[in-house]
Design a protein that fits this description.
It contains 28 helices and eight strands. It is mainly α and about 650 residues long. It folds into two domains: about 25-80 and about 90-470, Na+/H+ antiporter like fold; about 480-610, 3-Layer(aba) Sandwich (Rossmann fold). The strands form two sheets. The protein has a six-stranded parallel beta sheet, with helices on both faces.
Length: about 650
């Protein structure tokens, strides 16, 4: 009798672990000649296609999806079969969505108040309401498809921020660093799995699956910090894009390893050829069709049509790549690159932003729901060993590969920590491996849980990586160089943050011949400014050591122009505590931020929203024919009201 099998989602990046109260799927329970959910027979047409070297990747994924969709009772008889049809009108589905939204809003609001990344909030919310927590959501199959679309929209928005020309400049990292990372990490993890007693073919799958990092987690964390365009963001994006490309041969390889007498080389060649044709077709058709099509739709002046076309482009490109054996996310990324070449990129990005935010939060919550606390209690040591092994081996190998390719030590260590987790594609590969009989059910459950736990740890690893990189930037001669170049500065202005606002302040100072020294944490901005011989240095403006090296005790005043509200508050606090007599002028987001900075000791505060409103109001008054003297009087009066509404800065 076949072992009991459970319902699960289609094999996608959201196909996570077992649900409680159900028997688990065991890939090794499928006997020769048996049929999986009425779909792909182990010794039928699918197996013959494999032997003929004509395997079609979507069929393998579809077979696994069919196998994982079926519910069986304890006697092995079909107990329940329920598809997606009708669920959109099901009140149960609506209830699940309401629970998801309520948990997300409550948890993320709390985490925002304590300055914790929202991704952690989504993970915690998912664990709390999921089948292994409070049990408010027992079966997540109805929302997992929507959750996967969050990753699709994230990749599309990332593509919108790039161009094909800029991507071409990343080809060294993409095919050099990316290939080396996948090969080194896969080899190390595969050997570790073999050493733990896993059969060689299964060890190959385990190593390959664990070598892939979480595209959704890492890129969202980088986007939240505005670091996607920085050096760390470009390197991480290159590695993650190559991992997406590597998925296609891996998906082909898994069922081949589970079947005897197959021609692996021929099958891989056919699959890779299909993938290349699909990618080339998307690029060619997109370049020829997208711009004229968007112009025709935009001329109709109907916003709903433009949103519909954008959705069609995103999902259509994803469908095309998935049909060719690649991932939905890769197709969406290519679509973003193509739309980025048009003049409609900003409107499309604004239209699709709400879809991305909501669906991506669902994805992170479904990851949190896979944390099986009962399995942790039963197999705690095994799970801890696997999780620790994954994180350590990947961090070491990725950092080693980055150093071998001559990346700075701090950046290499940051990449190692940030990409040490395993990702959503591991769920796909392990589900296929269980279907093919390569991995038994117990091993599969431990691996799925370990992957989920490493994903949960990603935000903390990213923070640690950023701090390690900052420390190495300072320790590797950075402080000494900064101190040496600032030792003759006196009565200078510290410009803390060299974005658009900081650069403007520095330019005004230079125009009046006032000495200044600027600090910023974006290596690209620092390098660009240094190429023009400007006194801009890499460093954390809230670090006492960095401020001392910048000659803060000799500075006339400090201008805090950071665009991160929390970082601005930390910097003002450090400046006021260490240099109590220093005038501090800070940039604020709004009136509430003004009040916070005033309590922390800022001398002067400029709320950017207020200033933009005043400038726009002045233009309107000027256009209405109001005299310049009256406009100046009105602006001064309004600014006075803002200043009066701020609490007085504390003495000393």
């Amino acid at each position: 009798m076949a072992a009991p099998m459970r319902r699960a989602a289609p094999v996608t990046s959201a196909a996570f672990g077992p649900s409680p109260g159900r028997s688990e799927f065991r890939g090794d329970a499928l006997s020769a000649g048996s049929t999986i959910a009425g779909g792909w027979p182990r010794t039928g047409r699918g197996a013959r296609d494999v032997r003929a070297g004509a395997i079609i990747v979507p069929e393998a994924a579809t077979a696994a999806a069919q196998a994982l969709r079926v519910d069986y009772d304890g006697d092995g008889a079909a107990a329940n079969r329920r598809g997606v049809r009708g669920t959109m009108t099901d009140t149960h589905f609506l209830g699940q969505i309401l629970i998801f939204l309520a948990a997300a809003v409550a948890t993320v609001t709390l985490f925002r108040r304590i300055n914790v990344p929202p991704v952690i909030g989504y993970l915690v919310a998912g664990a709390a309401i999921g089948p292994h927590g409070a049990g408010l959501i027992g079966d997540t199959a109805t929302v997992r498809g929507l959750a996967e679309l969050g990753v699709v929209f994230l990749m599309f928005s990332i593509g919108l921020g790039l161009t094909l020309q800029r991507l071409a400049t990343m080809r060294g990292h993409l095919f050099g660093l990316g290939l080396a990372q996948v090969a080194a990490s896969g080899l190390a993890l595969g050997l570790a799995a073999y050493a733990l007693g896993i059969e060689p073919r299964a060890a190959i799958v385990v190593g390959a699956g664990l070598a892939l990092s979480s595209t959704a987690m890492v890129l969202q964390l980088l986007a939240d910090k505005g670091e996607l365009v920085g050096r760390a963001g470009r390197v991480a994006l290159s590695i993650l894009l190559f991992q997406d490309l590597a998925v296609v041969p891996l998906i082909v390889l898994v069922p081949l390893l589970g079947a005897a007498g197959t021609t692996v080389g021929t099958a891989l060649g056919i699959a890779l050829l299909k993938a290349a044709v699909a990618l080339l077709g998307i690029v060619v058709v997109g370049r020829l069709v997208l711009r004229p099509l968007f112009r025709v739709i935009a001329a109709r002046r109907t916003p709903e049509l433009l949103v519909g076309l954008a959705l069609l482009v995103v999902l259509g490109a994803g469908f095309a790549t998935e049909a060719a054996g690649l991932s939905l996310a890769l197709g969406a990324f290519l679509a973003g690159l193509l739309v980025a070449e048009t003049e409609f990129r900003h409107q499309v990005e604004a239209d699709l932003a709400p879809f991305r935010g909501i669906l991506l939060s669902l994805f992170f919550m479904t990851v949190g729901m896979t944390v099986d606390f009962s399995l942790i209690a039963r197999e705690g040591w095994a799970v801890a060993t696997v999780v620790g092994g994954i994180l350590v081996l990947k961090a070491v190998t990725i950092a080693g590969v980055c150093r071998a390719l001559r990346l700075p030590t701090g950046l290499a260590l940051r990449q190692g920590l940030m990409l040490a987790e395993s990702g959503e594609f591991a769920f796909i590969l392990f589900a296929l491996a269980m279907t093919a009989g390569l991995i038994d059910g117990e091993t599969g459950r431990v691996l799925v849980l370990a992957v989920a736990l490493t994903m949960v740890a990603t935000p903390l690893l990213a923070v640690a990586g950023r701090r390690v990189e900052n420390w190495f930037e300072v320790e590797a001669g950075g402080l000494d160089r900064l101190a040496a170049e600032s030792h003759d500065l006196n009565e200078h202005v510290l410009v803390l943050g060299y974005g658009r606002v900081g650069e403007t302040v520095a330019r005004l100072l230079a125009a009046r011949g006032l000495p200044f020294l600027a600090l910023d944490l974006d290596p690209a901005r620092v390098a660009a400014a240094r190429s023009h011989d400007l006194p801009v240095y890499y460093g954390d403006a809230s670090s006492r050591l960095v401020l001392r090296a910048a000659g803060a005790e000799r500075a006339r005043l400090a201008a805090v122009t950071l665009n991160d509200g929390a970082a601005t508050a930390r910097t003002v606090t450090v400046l006021r505590n260490r240099f109590p007599d220093m005038p501090i002028f800070a940039r604020a987001r709004d009136a509430a931020h003004c009040n916070e900075l005033a309590r922390l000791g800022a001398t002067g505060i400029v709320p950017e929203i207020v200033e933009v409103s005043l400038l726009l109001g002045a233009q309107v008054l000027r256009g209405a024919g109001i005299a310049e003297e009256e406009i100046a009087h009105v602006l001064a009066e309004e600014r006075g009201h803002v200043i009066e509404s701020q609490p007085a800065a504390p003495d000393g």
